[in-house]
Amino acid sequence: TWIHVARLNQFFTRDLYLRVFFQTNSSIDRENLQAVLVYRYKPPFGTLQLAYQRGTAEFGQVSTQGNTVFLKTTLVY
User: Fold this and answer.
1) pLDDT digit string, tens, across residues 11-53
2) Rounded to whole angstroms, how far apart are CA atoms 10 and 17?
3) CA 43, 48, 52, 58 torsion: positive or negative?
4) Given CA atoms 14, 6, 50, 47 in this order, what sign does their dihedral have?
5) Considering the entire predicted model, what is its pTM?
6) How many beta carbons lie within 10 A of that of residue 40, not counting itself?
């Protein structure tokens, strides 16, 4: 079994950044991808996050590679 993991953090500005996580597993022919784009409009706690996820399944199981998109906003008064 070969498992590869790659992480990437790209900071465009102090308040706008992208985080990417990619993982492969050769024994079950599975690839996972997670990406989160974060914009902090009221630093440090007011954020807008757009996330994409592909390849979620039960731990160690072969599955269909579904796509999911999330949108999250937070604000602290």
Assistant:
1) 999 999 999 999 888 887 788 899 999 999 987 789 999 999 9
2) 6
3) positive
4) negative
5) 0.77
6) 17
